[in-house]
Specification:
Oligomer: single chain
Structural class: mainly beta
Strand order of the largest sheet: 4-5-6-7
Number of helices: 1
Mean pLDDT: 87
Number of strands: 7
Largest sheet: 4 strands, antiparallel
Shape: globular
Length: 108
Amino acid sequence: ATFVYGDSLAVGPAPGNAYSVFLVSSDLDGSGYQTTYVDHRIWSQHGKGAARYFGRMDVDGDDIPELILEVVGETSVWISALKREASGWTEVYRDPCGLPAPTGTRAP
């Protein structure tokens, strides 16, 4: 799920009070869905980078599909990939034209 406050999922300037949250929830053990990945960006601190789900693809050839994200910034759009691990999802690739990752992007 993607949530954007104070702006939209479009390339363009980032208003000072805008932020985005991207959440992934997974049913890892069959007991119900829990948050397994969070990307929270306060645009005045981290720069504009609103992630949204684009698709699934086995990028690394291990027969387990990664999540492909499209990330919208102030001047460009870039791709990020999340890999499934036992405890949730971890970002394993970010297009070099994208912003640096904010700290604490993984769910507890």
